[in-house]
Batch of 2 targets.
Target 1
Amino acid sequence: MDEDVPSVEELRARLAEVRDRIALSAQRRGRAPDEVTLIAVSKTHPAEILRRAIEAGVTDLGENRVQEAEDKILEIGRERVGWHLIGHLQSNKARRAVQLFEIVHSLDSKELALRLNRLRGEEGRGLLSVMIQVDLGGEETKTGIAESELPELVQQVAACEHLHLKGLMTLPPFFEDSEHARPYFNRLRELRDHYRAEGAFADGPGELSMGMSNDFEVAVEEGATMVRVGTAIFGQRAGKKL
Ligand SMILES: *Cc1c(COP(=O)(O)O)cnc(C)c1O
């Protein structure tokens, strides 16, 4: 196990490479590289590796399970790094999630919106930022809310006084050739533009959380403002794909 643990120097090099690729993709579309936030997805990796990643310059970490994230957040704290919940949130973990996170990328139902709103209010922690996860892959992915249900959920979030709609997120089906993911990213940007014009994103332009290790360059070309990159920074995860 231990021999696979990347050093701070190794992590610094991988981060620099990912950041270079983000910058080139942004520049191809006349975008400024600093419009894109790199979220290092640290799920399954132990706190020690996360510490090294922070040492190497990571500013944002993405976790997909509340329990696993809790252990790491308690160990590492929030002073030097922001924590993003990017995985499906079960309703019985919602209270812990609103206590631990300031941003959830995976809002996928009206029920969850109402629950997060109520709990955040009870906890008295100010606004919780949420991104709505849109399922653009239909049968192939089944993660997130169907595009047809998006208008209602946007309205619902607007009516939630403790939630702040920050943007949209998607996770396209996996393709060997990342070009095949482009239509999904393009569609999410169209949806974001539509809701931006409607003023749905109260305090910003509407973030687009899209792009992973295998397709973040295409996502940035299509307008991503947050990319969620795990493997390209931390290496392969052990065990089954999460
Ligand atoms: C695991 C995960 C990622 C990162 O995947 P990589 O292919 O390792 O970059 C991004 N987003 C979500 C929602 C994930 O669960």
Note: Residues 41, 43, 64, 86-87, 171, 212-214, 228-232, 242 surround pyridoxal-5'-phosphate (CB under 6 Å).
Target 2
Amino acid sequence: MTPNEPQLPPNQQLVAAGKWPVVGERAPRADEAPWAIAIEGLVDRPARHALETLCGRPLVERTVDIHCVTRWSKLGANFGGLRLFELLDEAGVQSAARYVSFVSRSARGHSTSLQLDECRALDPLIVFEHEGRPLEVEHGGPVRVVVEGKYFYKSVKWLETVRLLADDRLGYWEAESGYHNGADPWREERYMAPSLSKREAERLIASRDFSHRDLRSIDAADRDLTGLRAVGALLRDANFRRCLLTGADLQGANFSNAHLEDCQARDASFRNADLEGANLNGADLKGADLRGASLLGATFSDEDGIETGRGARIDGSTRMDAAAIEQLAPPQRLYVEAHRPDVGG
Ligand SMILES: Nc1nc2c(c(=O)[nH]1)N[C@H]1C(S)=C(S)[C@@H](COP(=O)(O)O)O[C@H]1N2
Ligand SMILES: [Mo]
């Protein structure tokens, strides 16, 4: 038990001190127009606030715990900004408004939304500063939303428009990737329920070909999937516990938050796969190829295993990038490095 544990929602792990991963888009849409924040929709007095005038208002400072859906958490980040409701109260939210949609200055029109009452209780900040300095561009500078108490995908970077709505407008990740619209980290509201029928799942498991399929949350625990082909498959949150995956071709598959505990994955190829938040505790990864795979928030061993060496079976034959190992949470990194001494620190 670490002293920080009670502050961490279920199945989250702390990033290394001082680290803050960049997730999703890294820069806003290129646009020459001066930055302004529009308050629109079901308000009595729609407004457009030039960024300079907003920055001139007295800033509120707040210390916030960040919890990303890909299982990393960063506690105690310090932000400076304005309370969203300072602007909403000025604009006069109409009684028909039930949702707030935040739209980003983003090439893909990135957005997210919150239920209005919940939003009021969470009291989001419109943030300009991090640790007393202007917010870094890749973290949403010059201006982003920070909503404490939700997975961080509810905190839009490069905020441009706040729209009050009667009906919800599902956000980018919520619509595209099935992220849960509730996003409560304490209840682990990471993903929507799976869309796959039991029969369809059985048929695919029998075929051993998942390539390029959307099989989010598929339950394949304890199955013999030796030699499975799952190139480019969407396998977020899938259950592969204790599976036989020897020699499987899993290149470019998305395993984010998938369960791979105690699976047999000798000689499997995870090349360029997304293993963010995946749990590989106890998995046999000898001869497996993880080059190019993203390992942010991945787990190779629980705390007991780190002490006793009973985590994932990895050694010098497990191919991994040094840069990906560096992304791991410190105890995971120690575990991996201890088993692959050839890679060094
Ligand atoms: N415009 C925009 N906002 C976004 C995203 C994005 O891709 N584009 N990603 C979201 C997700 S999934 C997370 S976890 C956080 C990441 O913020 P960070 O990169 O500052 O850590 O931003 C959220 N806001
Ligand atoms: Mo995220």
Note: The helical segments are 51-55, 84-91, 116-122, 172-176, 198-207, 303-308, 322-326, 330-339.
